Amino acid sequence: MKTFIEIGSNNYDNLVYLAKNYFWKGIIVEPIPEVFVFIERHQNCFYENCAISENDGVKDFFYYSQITGWGSLDRKHVEKLGIDKNKLNVIKVKNLTFDSLCSKYKLSKIDLLKIDAESYDGKIIRSIDFIKYDIKEIIFEYEHLSKEELTATQDYLNKNNYKKFKRKENNLFYIKS
Fold it and tell me: How far apart, in whole angstroms, are the C-alpha atoms of residue 13 and residue 53?
């Protein structure tokens, strides 16, 4: 059975369809509670209401409830989106490392990893031990990464035998070579 992990799933643009239509098994991660409750549920998926970061624990998470998907562990990123600062929500969210998430579900082989973590994508990717985890394909949103973050992330992927094979909208697609 093929597997996926989706970090920052949101409630409208997620990979649940892979479980529903193609019988994949997946882990859906979404930190915003009011978004998390509306994610379509499927028996082949596990759901985590948390954020993925470099450390396990609890951190502040910043988001606008009026616009689903505009949230991050990085306050500066959310503020630069240009919404009135008085409408910014700050909540405490559980954080897991990528390793803790995979250990919890006893997962080491992953067919697809999709990350949309609003400027945290690079940090998450660079925290993955690619010797421990066999990931075939990685999709991540690069639009909110600084030039330095993007370069560091791409270098890390290249060093771990991943090659970019597609760019679509705001996402980069990498496959293990």
Answer: 21
Q: Whats the size of the chain, residue-wise?
A: 177
Report residue 145 CA to chain centroid gap: 14
**Assigned architecture for domain 3-55+97-176:** 3-Layer(aba) Sandwich (3.40)
Q: Over the stretch 118-170, which tens digit does the pLDDT of each residue have?
A: 889 999 999 999 999 999 999 999 998 999 999 999 999 999 999 999 999 89
The C-alpha atoms of residue 136 and residue 152 are separated, in whole angstroms, by 20
Report the alpha-carbon distance of residue 103 to residue 152 in Å, rounded.
Answer: 26
Query: CA-CA distance, 15 to 25, in Å (whole number)?
Result: 10
Q: Where are the domains of the chain?
A: 3-55+97-176
Tell me the pTM. Answer: 0.94
Neighbouring CB atoms inside 10 A of 87's CB total 11
Q: Locate the DSSP E strands across 119-161.
A: 134-141
